[in-house]
TrEMBL record:
Bilayer-crossing regions: 34-52
Subcellular location: Cell membrane
Protein name: UPF0391 membrane protein BQ8794_40317
InterPro entries listed in its UniProt record: DUF1328
Annotated source species: Mesorhizobium prunaredense
Family statement drawn from the similarity comment of this UniProt entry: Belongs to the UPF0391 family.
Amino acid sequence: MIKWIIILLIIAAAASLLGMPALAGAAATGARILIGIVLIIFLLVMLGVFAVA
């Protein structure tokens, strides 16, 4: 999932430099959503680890 976030951020940066704000915004929004999902999963895993220990 981290690979997809990096790919979307690179696409957003390239589209921004090439003057395509709609594509850059869409790629940045996709990366932002994936980052949120990763953080939620990370927090759930950490809470699970602390609940077991």
